[in-house]
Specification:
Mean pLDDT: 91
Structural class: mainly alpha
CATH class: Mainly Alpha
Low-confidence stretches: none
Number of helices: 6
Shape: globular
Order of helices and strands: HHHHHH
CATH topology: Globin-like
CATH superfamily: Uncharacterized conserved protein DUF2267
Helix content: 55-70%
Number of strands: 0
Distance between the termini: 24 Å
CATH architecture: Orthogonal Bundle
Length: 126
């Protein structure tokens, strides 16, 4: 999947225009990178379009925060309200699932606590 198609899918899934879809994608991936391990961030980055890889590479923080905090961080970063922020997160993560191998996406989901299931397809849990 190329970058333009990735952003188009995020925009369509979130109800945001292309520029806001780009902004939401960056906020979600950077927040995700803070939440997951460095190894997981590297694995994920390697399977995404090149333009998105710097948002994850060398950023895995393994910081522990709940799904509500994830939504708050993305909303604050993008200036979206919580509902729009959550919709953007779901759109970005659903779009991430397409180019990422099934096993790698399941590893990502399994690294997140179950309160994230509302943001990520629970069927991805292994």
């Amino acid at each position: 999947m190329d970058y333009a198609r990735f952003i188009t899918q995020v925009a369509g899934g979130s109800g945001l225009d292309g520029d806001r879809g780009d902004e939401a994608t960056a906020a979600v991936l950077q927040t995700l990178a803070a939440r997951i391990s460095g190894e997981e961030a590297q694995d994920l980055a390697a399977q995404l379009p090149g333009e998105l890889q710097p948002l994850l590479r060398d950023r895995g923080g393994g910081e522990r925060f709940a799904a509500d905090d994830f939504v708050d961080r993305v909303a604050a970063e993008t200036g979206l309200d919580r509902e729009s922020g959550e919709r953007a997160i779901r759109a970005v993560l659903a779009t991430v699932e397409e180019p990422v191998s099934g096993g790698a996406f399941a590893d990502l989901v399994n690294e997140l606590p179950r309160d994230y299931d509302r943001l990520v397809a629970p069927r991805a849990r292994g």
